[in-house]
Design goal:
Layout (H helix, E strand, L loop, with lengths): L3 H7 L2 H5 L23 H5 L11 E7 L4 E6 L6 E7 L6 E8 L4 E7 L18 E2 L6 E6 L4 E6 L5 E5 L8 E4 L4 E6 L4 E6 L5 E6 L8 E10 L2 E8 L3 E10 L2 E11 L8 E4 L4 E6 L4 E6 L5 E6 L4 E7 L2 E6 L4 E6 L4 E7 L4 E8 L2 E6 L2 H4 L11 E7 L2
Antiparallel strand pairs: 1-28, 2-3, 3-4, 4-5, 6-7, 7-8, 8-9, 10-11, 11-12, 12-13, 14-15, 15-16, 16-17, 18-19, 19-20, 20-21, 22-23, 23-24, 24-25, 26-27, 27-28
Length: 389
């Protein structure tokens, strides 16, 4: 978790100088989200956020959420599920929101209860990462501070299952053809595997290598009934590729390769099978580190911007969010060069695939605008970035 002092040191003055909704910024398609949730009335009263429009794109801003962290699309229903943690340091509030991504209207809110086992990180059982399997029906969240993985019914919002003792539970991905959910965590310093049908733990695998391990970002490739390949970045050290197979219900894991990453701040992974690459962010050095997908060999480091965070491959290009700078770098995968920059709010924390011509930006602007990092106030944004090409 990023400390307040480190955040203040890394947020550039240029980002603070930006003004949303003022200063003559042209945004022809900005809308305030017409929320029905009573707690969201404040969001409705605010003017829609706007940013400079870029040639070839339409960027639309919405006021949605308080302490936005991560989002996931339910591929069965089309709904957007979103975690909120506020403030982000010492959480006092946390919710899971079900949102219509077309209108950005909140359809459901699941409020998190108070918790005393957070290790000093707030007073609520805050939910951070989130995922929805392709089959739908459930939404999975991780509570890093309480060491939990939670499973919720997407229809009723009812809590179906809580797995405890998953220290610093982090990312969530799915091997749908195998009927598995995979969660990264600091204990075992790798991945924990769950059965989507029985909601039981069915396996664990540890990342090799010396040094502190805190498995974080993951990406799934080559997933079928015959197995799935999971590439896992440790926040501190290892980058590991596992092969997971399942026969007669028994889950087996095998390390395909493992390599060491320098420094810390590796929270996100994106893969390109077409270019045979793994892309890993380096938050504090402002890099995308590039590796060979099949061997793990390091190819190069690409400077993208302060606070390089979430990444997405969109229309053949790699987009990397720069969390401390408030812009997105657009990277040509053939030349591995930054071709242009897009501005989408102050603190883009996640780039989320939505439609073939549109992706979403989950923005934590309140950490800059409203004192939301250490104070319990503020409203956050979601941006639609639509390609006009």
């Amino acid at each position: 978790m990023i400390t307040t002092s480190r955040l203040k040191a890394l947020v550039p003055a240029a980002a603070l100088a930006l003004t949303l909704g003022a200063g003559g910024l042209a945004a022809p398609s900005a809308h305030a989200a017409p929320q029905h949730d009573p707690a969201a009335r404040h969001w409705e009263s605010l003017p829609a956020p706007v940013v400079p429009q870029q040639p070839g794109y339409q960027i639309t801003g919405y006021n949605v959420g308080k302490g936005n962290y991560r989002g996931a699309i339910d591929q069965k229903t089309g709904s957007l599920w979103l975690t909120n943690v506020s403030p982000l340091e010492g959480a006092k509030e946390s919710s899971i929101l079900k949102v219509d991504p077309n209108t950005m209207r909140v359809q459901k809110r699941i409020r998190m209860p108070k918790a005393s086992n957070t290790g000093g990180h707030g007073t609520v059982n805050a939910q951070y990462d989130i995922g929805v399997p392709k089959r739908g029906g459930t939404v999975w969240t991780t509570a890093a501070t309480t060491g939990e993985v939670n499973v919720w019914d997407t229809g009723s919002g009812k809590l179906l299952k809580t797995f405890t003792g998953v220290n610093h539970a982090h990312g969530i991905v799915f091997a749908d053809d195998l009927g598995l959910a995979i969660v990264s965590a600091s204990e075992p310093g790798g991945i924990v595997i769950y059965d989507l049908n029985t909601l039981q733990e069915v396996g664990r695998a540890k990342q090799p290598g010396a040094g502190k391990q805190l498995a974080a970002g993951m990406a799934v490739t080559d997933s079928s009934a015959g197995g799935a390949t999971i590439t896992v970045a440790s926040y501190y050290s290892s980058l590991t590729q596992f092969r997971i197979t399942r026969e007669n219900g028994a889950v087996k894991t095998k390390v395909l390769w493992n390599t060491h990453q320098g420094g810390d701040g590796h929270g996100s992974v994106e893969v390109s099978k077409a270019h045979n690459r793994v892309y890993v962010n380096n938050l504090y050095k402002g890099l995308v580190q590039v590796y060979n997908l099949r061997t793990g060999a390091h190819i190069t480091d690409l400077v993208t911007g302060p606070g390089t965070n979430s990444m997405i491959i969109f229309q053949g290009k790699l987009y990397a969010a720069n969390y401390f700078a408030g812009y997105i770098s657009v990277i040509d995968q053939n030349t591995l060069g930054v071709s242009r920059l897009l501005t989408t709010g102050f603190a883009p924390n996640q780039l989320l695939a939505w439609k073939p011509n549109t992706f979403l930006v989950i923005d934590k602007s309140s950490i800059v605008l409203d004192g939301g990092y250490t104070q319990n106030r503020g409203v956050d944004r979601i941006w639609k970035v639509r390609s006009l090409r």
